[in-house]
Amino acid sequence: MKMMNLIKYILFTLPLTLYAQDWGPQVEVLIPRDNIYQLDQASLIKNIDTGRRIALFYPVSVSDLLIPYGPMKTFFESDPDDPVRKLIYDLTRTVSPFKSMDEVFKWLGVHEYPSIIQEENPNPLPLLSAQEKSLPMGATLIQTKDGEALTFGCAACHASDLFGVKILGLTNRFPRANEFFRQGQSFAPYINSFIFKDLLKTTEGERLMLLKAKTSTKWVGTKKPKMIGLDTSLAQVALSLAKREKDPYATRTELSAKLPRPNKLSKLVADSKPAVWWNVKYKNRWLSDGSIISGNPVHTNFLWNEIGRGTDLKKLEEWMKTATPQIEALTTAVFATKAPRFEKFFGPDSISLESARRGQKHFVQSCQKCHGIYEKGWDLPDAKQLSNIELIQNIKITYHKKTPVINVGTDPGRYLGMYEFAADLNRLQISKNLKTIVEPQKGYVPPPLEGIWARWPYFHNNSIPNLCALLTKSADRPKTFTTGAAINKKTDFDLNCVGYPLGEKAPTAWSKNPDYLYDTKKQGLTNTGHDIGIIIKDGKEIFTDEEKKDLIEFLKTL
Ligand code: HEC
Ligand code: HEC
After folding, report:
1. Nearest-angstrom CA–CA distance, 167 and 130
2. Nearest ligand (C-alpha, residue 497)
3. Distances (CA, A) of 360 to 394, 440, 521
4. 155 lines ligand 1 (CB under 6 A)
5. Which pLDDT score is estimated for 10?
6. Cα–Cα distance between 123 and 334 in angstroms, integer?
7. CA-derived radius of gyration, the chain
8. Which of these, 458, 510, 556, 401, lies nearest to 31 by C-alpha position?
9. Residue among 137, 231, 294 whose CB has most ligand 1 atoms within 8 A, to mutate
């Protein structure tokens, strides 16, 4: 017995300690890496808490693209009829006049920090001071020598409001963080003018900060997403690198800013949604197309964010060296992220056990080989003694040791985009230091399906409104659909189809704003694929309506 324990110990702990901080492409994920640095329990809990705080408040202090908070607040909270304020609006052609910073934050899609501790939340938020709590999730105030600046952190894109529960690690369905910087660019030409100084009471430090921001945007290439909810980070990084020299630090010169290298991503649509964080523990390569085959994905995010903000990469390299503990805490938190559970939101009676168990059989036959094996409470030998809630839990999830990339015919734009700047990224000294390697792919990672119920709309480009549509052949899927926030469980979610309610079931308010209409006819937004060979055999759909229902019932329990 003792010997067995020893063997078990060697088998289960040794390889992990060896591999724990190895981010190379040869790493095999033998068990989920939810404790990525193999910390003891107390350090793990402490690091997760620190890491979540860093996810809320952006830690990089070397960005040049910082917006002075004081003048911005003064501007948005000034009298809307003030003639000078009106003049600024006319000059900058910014979006509809907001009345307060709260309205600006609302438009940006960042979520209010919850006022109470929420029991349904799988990833409890850190305890914040009253002042920290007053900012929405992801908004960050940085104290610089020139004054207080507003910027955005990971949570701006990677936190979401799920029926009132604020979940860190869940995709924000409607973020506009990138849009904020894009709009900011339109202010740049006016910052030295009297209106800024007089109306906004700008200090000398804040004026300098704005000048710096203005300068750094010369090396930033922005792009508007095709649809709210999708992100253009890929294009922004590519177009920004195209404005820098081709050396290992992508040096910023006047000439490179004036004469950017042509890049297909100025036209090609490669938009994608922010990924959920609870899947990374199962994977050894990153992004929807698995194109980052080596390196810590959290590092890559800092690098990408900062290239997109026009930052000097020598300064970023220095910052990364000093910030190792912060980056490791954030990495710990990201890998430890858990998925929200369906029954916590809708009650255990909302799942039919018999139907889910029938659905499991279809899943094993048609889906498991790509998406992984999900063993349930009801599969245990002592299942008879378990409660209904225990029966529907995941006991063990086994995903591929090496994350696969498969082309199932979904929209190719996103993976094709990677071919347009992989070489520019791999050339960077920072990529070499971090051992980050980008290798363009043909297809996408079949993602682990834990917490799939909470991740609608589906596919990397959000083109599938709910699971009923996903299990329908592409020719018959909805060509357009309205989208909206998950506020009311009864009206904003289709409990049977899991995802957006469609047609008459969709809240009428959703159709009022054309920005929220998803149109699969647009470039990059097509909803093809994931049907032939999966749900279609010999030209026919393989599942009856009843079988689809069972399959969806099973997916709810993951
Ligand atoms: C402007 C929005 C935005 C911000 C801010 C942002 N991300 Fe992301 N993130 C994305 C998008 C979009 C993707 C998916 C891109 C793709 O794969 O096509 C992504 C992917 C990821 C992944 C890869 C997940 C996987 O399954 O491979 C990780 C990890 C991640 N982000 C962590 C972070 C961290 C940590 C931060 C803060 C330092 C951050 N992100 C900030 C938009 C954002
Ligand atoms: C041949 C491999 C393969 C098989 C078999 C397969 N899938 Fe997929 N699946 C994928 C890939 C690849 C994606 C990612 C597509 C994309 O994002 O463009 C995907 C995406 C999904 C998504 C959306 C995930 C998300 O986060 O948006 C769901 C849900 C899904 N599959 C369910 C199923 C079900 C249910 C079955 C069985 C009926 C199945 N899949 C069979 C490869 C497969």
Report:
1. 20
2. 2
3. 12, 34, 34
4. no
5. 43
6. 10
7. 24
8. 401
9. 231
The CA distance from 50 to 32, in Å, is 22
CA distances from 396 to 29, 31, 169, 399 (A): 14, 10, 21, 10
Which of 516, 477, 167 has the alpha carbon at shortest distance from 341?
Answer: 167
Per-residue tokens: 424:
């520019």
CA atoms of 554 and 216, how far apart (whole Å):
50
Q: The dihedral of CA 126, 132, 137, 140: what is its sign?
A: negative
Q: Whose CA is nearest to atom 33 of ligand 2?
A: 367
Q: Pick from 186, 185, 178: which is nearest to 272 by CA?
A: 178
Q: Report how far residue 90's alpha carbon sits from residue 86's, in angstroms, rounded to the nearest whole number.
A: 6
Q: 337 is written with which tokens?
A: 């992220």
Of all protein residues, whose CA lies closest to atom 6 belonging to ligand 1?
Answer: 154
Q: 80: which 2 tokens?
A: 């809307």
Q: What is the pLDDT of residues 401-448, one digit of tens each?
A: 999 999 999 999 999 999 999 999 999 999 999 999 999 999 999 999
Q: 278: which 2 tokens?
A: 């609870």
**Higher model confidence: residue 177 or residue 149?**
149
What pLDDT does 510 receive? 96
pLDDT digits (tens, 9 = 90+) for 205-245: 988 888 888 889 899 998 999 999 999 999 999 999 999 99
Q: By the 8 A CB rule, do 34 and 281 touch? A: yes
Question: What whole-number distance in Å separates Cα of residue 524 and Cα of residue 461?
Answer: 7
Protein residue whose Cα sits closest to atom 12 of ligand 1:
274
Residue type at position 176: R
The one-letter amino acid code at 431 reads S
How far from chain centre, in Å, is Cα 480?
23
User: Burial of 556 by CB count in 10 Å (0-12 exposed, 13-18 middle, 19+ buried)?
Assistant: buried
Q: Is the pLDDT of residue 5 over 90?
A: no
Residue 95's pLDDT is: 54
- In the Cβ-directed half-sphere of 503, how many Cα atoms lie within 13 Å? 5
pLDDT for the residue numbered 96: 55
Q: Do the Cβ atoms of 405 and 445 come closer than 8 Å?
A: yes
Please tell me if the CB atom of residue 301 comes closer than 6 angstroms to any atom of ligand 1.
Answer: yes
User: Looking up tokens 């994977």, which residue turns up?
Assistant: 283
**Residue 273 Cβ < 6 Å to ligand 2:** no
Reference 284, options 275, 274, 273, 293; nearest CA is: 293
Which of 21 and 497 is assigned the larger pLDDT? 497
- CA distance linking residue 247 with residue 146, whole number of Å: 31
Q: Is the dihedral of CA 98, 101, 107, 112 positive or negative?
A: negative
Q: Cα(393) to centroid of ligand 1, in Å?
A: 28
Q: Is 455 a pocket residue for ligand 2 (Cβ < 6 Å)?
A: yes
pLDDT reported for residue 92: 64
On the question of pLDDT at 86 being above 80, the answer is: no
Does the C-beta of 20 come closer than 6 Å to ligand 2?
no
